[in-house]
Design a protein that fits this description.
This protein is α/β, with parallel strands linked by helices. It has 3 domains: about 280 residues, Ribonuclease Z/Hydroxyacylglutathione hydrolase-like (Metallo-beta-lactamase, Chain A, 4-Layer Sandwich); about 150 residues, 3-Layer(aba) Sandwich (Rossmann fold), CATH 3.40.50.10710; about 100 residues, Roll (Ubiquitin-like (UB roll)), CATH 3.10.20. Helices cover about 30% and strands about 25% of the residues. It is built from 16 helices and 25 strands.
């Protein structure tokens, strides 16, 4: 008879499931745990004013003494962007590969945070608490990406990180299946695998095709070429530099994050500048047929270099007839409208824009179905947990695992904050821990709740009204209410409505017997809705004034 171990292995995703972003997974055994990644998620269009979204850290804050370290798989913000907030509340070692740590350190130093950053090697195991962690190289869209083979007392866990299987990557380093096979030859308990492209059949095309597509475009473009790409996609930047070199063009960078990331990559030897990079200010003096500008802005971000060029407010680059703009990036869900607006503005200003399926100038950094199938067949896990994807991606990835022989009872589709646990004999769904995502507005933590978001939406669609009410010491109106509106009505054209609103205020005060913010706010809001079918935000402002004998106009 097998005796159950006293301790249980637990896997708890705090983010990254049912969504694209804020990837963060806790792996726990006994009284020790590690955290894999600490990312952010960018807001959807229905979250005005929100900069990004974090997982709820309370589970970790309540277990500070149990945390052995944070392990980073790579340097994208959806995997490292939350470090600056987490490390303000806990102090633990952070492990990563050189480029990943360089990006993390730069971000942390901007916030004045000194962190304990430690190297993660692909050649020797990292021993932290009861865990032995071996990293293996994977191909993605940023240098120094790794998957993890995590040895625990109850078996090995493979965490793929973000990956694709590209036999001809730009950096010459394909996903290291040889090392993965060596690390997993004695079996794998559970596989946690990237699900982003689970709805895409076949394989993700090689990045070498993008470089081949750039070359004829660079040779045939009549004027300047502007290539929009992700600031962290160092391999894509290298492809632009190489294609420019072959076309006899020089390259300039537009965008702060782009300049910072390229400088880091050059210092670490991940990028070779070819003919050299020209400062953007000097590049404006080059012949237009000899210039390529690499810019940020593939998601239509309002402050990105490409968006500012499209809007006509970039300080150096004005879009003109003869410019060719190549959008070398995939628009993430929720950003399609913003990017479409930018593309339309570029066309209107005279540029010819190549985007989407018009030319093979972008390929995903995530594997498609056949890449995922190859990973499943290579690892042969006993249990399978799809991660990194929206609900449809997780379910489709689980179905794919079934096709390669993993039965349904050994496949687990988790949600954020839901525990998976294994006691040495059986695996099961555990409890769902308390957790609510945190919205970041500037430097404010958890300050943007549902009420604030609803008010922002109303302000954006219906505007606001300030009702200034002069009252005497008895709480009676001591003069005519003054109504100020922005974004709701045009004051000069709405005198009748404003007169009616003043009468409504008097009626409300008589009805309630006293002036209260809630009574005026709710009652005046209902009045405006009856009159206009719109709900502006109503802000009463009660001002006490002196009056003769304590009396004023009859209220």
């Amino acid at each position: 008879m097998t005796t159950k171990p006293l301790r249980t292995l637990r896997i708890l995703p705090l983010g990254g499931l049912g969504e694209i972003g804020k990837n963060m997974t806790v792996i726990e055994y006994g009284r020790k745990l590690i955290v894999v990644d600490a990312g952010v998620m960018f807001p959807s269009n229905d979250m005005p004013g929100v900069d990004f979204i974090l997982p709820d850290y309370n589970y970790l804050l309540e277990r500070k003494d149990m945390i052995c370290g944070i392990i980073l798989t790579h340097g994208h913000l959806d995997h490292i962007g939350g470090l600056q907030f987490l490390l303000q509340q806990i102090s633990v070692p952070v492990y990563g590969t050189p480029f990943t740590l360089a990006l993390a350190e730069a971000s942390l130093l901007q916030q004045g945070i000194q962190a304990d950053l430690r190297p993660l090697s692909e050649k020797k195991p990292l021993l932290v608490g009861p865990f032995a962690i071996n990293a293996y190289h994977v191909t993605h869209s940023i240098p120094d990406c790794v998957g993890l083979v995590i040895e625990t007392p109850l078996g090995k866990i493979v965490h793929t990180g973000d990956f694709k299987i590209d036999p001809t990557p730009v950096d010459g380093r394909p996903t290291d299946f040889k090392r993965l096979a060596a690390l997993t030859r004695d079996g794998v308990l559970a596989l946690l695998a990237d699900s982003t492209n689970a709805d895409r059949p076949g394989r993700t095309p090689s990045d070498v095709l993008v470089g081949q597509a750039f070359e004829p475009l660079f040779l045939s473009a009549p004027g300047r070429i502007i290539v929009a790409t992700f600031a962290s996609h160092i391999a894509r930047i290298q492809q632009v530099i190489d294609a420019a070199h072959k076309a006899g063009r020089q390259v300039a960078l537009a965008g702060r994050s782009l300049n910072e990331n390229v400088a880091l990559a050059q210092n670490l030897g991940y990028i070779k500048p070819g003919l050299g990079l020209v400062p953007l200010e000097l590049a404006m003096n080059l012949p237009e047929s000899k210039l390529v500008i690499i810019a940020t802005g593939t998601q239509g971000e309002p402050t990105s270099a490409l968006s500012r060029m499209a809007a006509g407010n970039h300080p150096l680059v004005s879009i003109q007839s003869g410019d060719t703009v190549l959008v070398s990036g995939r628009v993430i869900p929720g950003k399609e409208e913003s990017m479409a607006r930018v593309i339309n503005q570029l066309f209107t200003r005279g540029a010819f824009v190549i985007y989407g399926s018009m030319a093979p100038i972008h390929t995903s950094g995530h594997g498609a179905q056949e890449d995922m199938r190859q990973m499943l067949e290579a690892v042969k896990p006993h249990f399978f947990i799809p991660i990194h994807g929206e609900a449809r991606h997780l379910h489709l990835h689980s179905r794919l695992a079934g096709e390669v022989g993993i039965p349904e009872q050994r496949r687990f589709i988790l949600q954020n904050y839901q525990v998976w646990e294994f006691d040495g004999v059986q695996a099961r769904y555990g409890e769902t821990v308390p957790g609510q995502d945190v919205r970041i507005d500037g430097r404010l933590l958890d300050d943007v709740n549902e009420t604030v978001l609803r008010d922002r939406e109303r302000l954006a669609t219906d505007g606001f009204v300030v009702a200034v009410l002069p009252v005497n010491k008895n709480g009676k109106l001591a003069g005519r209410p003054q109504i100020i509106s922005r974004g709701f009505i045009h004051m000069r054209d709405s005198e009748t409505l404003l007169d009616q609103a003043s009468l409504e205020i008097k009626r409300l005060m008589q009805q309630k017997g006293k002036t209260t913010h809630d009574a005026i706010r709710e009652g005046l809001g209902e009045f405006f809705y009856r009159q206009t079918n719109r709900r502006p935000v109503v802000l009463p402002s009660i001002v006490k004034v002196a009056s003769n004998n304590g009396s004023g106009p009859d209220a």
